[in-house]
Every structure is written in structure tokens, then in C-alpha cells.
Design brief:
233 residues, alpha+beta, Cyclophilin, two-stranded antiparallel sheet, Cyclophilin-like_dom_sf
């Protein structure tokens, strides 16, 4: 079960970024402005910053919906965590007290930064996971939510447009976004008069990078190699 968090203590940078790469070649940087009136936006940012000891670093994208047509969007949003390991009670107390976990490099693409490690070895992840094949480092991909009561539908629904970031999940894995997941998708073509269940942010720059990712085969080679907060010069 996801944990109740004091939202007032979560970091809310104006913009966050994802660096997308294919094998050893950087495809580009995507900057995103989350809409923080939604818990799902704060959850997304926490995974960009490594707030809970895990992040989107090392995650790959799973599929493209409606490829080449209106309402096309790129789906991903899992994160890597050791199987059957959990964040210590002491670690979660620190999160609740506002002392966010250290140990990852999640810095701005505008300044110097090093690669994030994708996990915090002292606090290696809160949820059990989905199984599948581990990475060479022994990590598994999960979409489990790290905060309770993530919005879906009803008042959280909104009109879609190119560049909007929405809550999503790979239903082929049996993941139900209504019950909360870390999954997200980025709309890459004008969807027309379509309502999404939970749009929670928008791409501010780098949508062309996302469109390049959509065209790459196999898609699972597109990896998030850095993520974090965008800092102003």
C-alpha cells in the first residue's frame, strides 16, 4: 500500500527534466512543468528528484499508443528497485519529517551534473515488485505508486493537447491506474477533442526529442539516463 506523505514537505521545482538516451547516445533533454495542485504531479516530481530513494533513471519506455495517428502518446514511467526489499521505517520517517533521502545526483541540465544512480543503496525502494527479468545490477522494474490517493478521472480529468503529460499504466501488465501507478505518458500528436483521465503537466521544451523516441525501434532501447530539477541560471 502506498504511504501517506506530508505534501507540504515535498519539493516542487518549477520544472523538471528527463534526459532520454539510446544505448550510449543522448537523444536530448525534455523539460516538464508539473501542475502541483495534483498529487500525481508531486509523485512524478518525487521520482524525477529521487525523493523517496528511487527514481526514473534507468527506466525504459514500453509502448506507443495510436502511433502515427491523432492521440499518439509515448508510455513509460516505471522505476528500478530491488525485488522484495523495502524502505526502512526510519527512512520513511525521514521522508515524513521532510528530510529527503540523499545519494543520487539529480541536477539541472543547464549546469554540471553527473549520472544519477537510479536507486539509493541505503534506502533501496519501498515496494515489492512485478518480477520479470532483473537488470545486470539485480534490479526490477516496478510501477507501484509511492504516494496514496493519486488522482484518476472525475475532477482530475481534462482536455488533452500535444505536449501534455498524463497519468498512464501498461495495462498489459495488469496495472490499474485507478489504483495508482508511477506510469506516465507524453502526448505527441494533437488528440483533438479528447478528455484524458489525469493530465498533470506539460512539456516546456524537448517535445521533438519525445517524437524522435516514438520513432525508434525497438522502443525499449530508449532509456531515461538522467532526471531532476531544472535550476535557473
Amino acid at each position: 500500500m502506498a504511504t501517506e506523505i506530508d505534501e507540504s514537505k515535498l519539493p516542487t521545482p518549477e520544472e523538471v527534466f528527463l534526459e532520454l538516451s539510446i544505448k550510449n547516445e543522448v537523444l536530448g533533454i525534455v523539460t516538464i512543468r508539473p501542475w502541483y495542485h495534483l498529487r500525481r504531479a508531486k509523485h512524478f516530481t518525487a521520482l524525477c528528484l529521487g525523493t523517496f530513494g528511487v527514481s526514473y533513471v534507468g527506466s525504459t519506455f514500453t509502448h506507443v499508443m495510436n502511433k502515427g495517428r491523432a492521440r499518439e502518446y509515448l508510455v513509460g514511467g516505471g522505476y528500478l528497485t530491488p525485488k522484495r526489499r523495502s524502505l526502512s521505517a526510519q527512512g520513511m520517517d525521514k521522508v515524513q519529517d521532510g528530510e529527503f533521502l540523499e545519494g543520487q545526483s539529480h541536477s539541472s541540465p543547464k549546469g554540471e551534473s553527473s549520472l544519477a544512480q537510479g536507486m539509493n543503496k541505503d534506502h533501496p525502494g519501498y515496494f515489492l515488485e512485478d518480477g520479470g527479468n532483473p537488470t545486470p545490477e539485480g534490479l526490477f522494474l516496478t510501477y507501484k505508486d509511492l504516494m496514496a490517493n493519486l488522482e484518476w478521472g472525475d475532477e482530475a480529468s481534462g482536455e488533452g493537447r500535444e505536449g501534455v503529460v498524463i497519468g498512464a499504466a501498461d495495462v498489459r501488465k495488469g496495472l490499474d491506474p485507478e489504483k495508482g501507478t508511477s506510469g506516465f505518458a507524453i502526448c505527441t500528436r494533437d488528440p483533438g477533442r479528447v478528455t484524458f483521465q489525469c493530465p498533470f503537466g506539460e512539456v516546456k521544451s524537448g517535445l521533438d526529442v519525445v517524437k524522435k523516441a516514438v520513432l525508434h525501434e525497438p522502443l525499449t532501447e530508449v532509456t531515461i539516463t538522467r532526471c531532476g530539477a531544472v535550476t535557473q541560471d
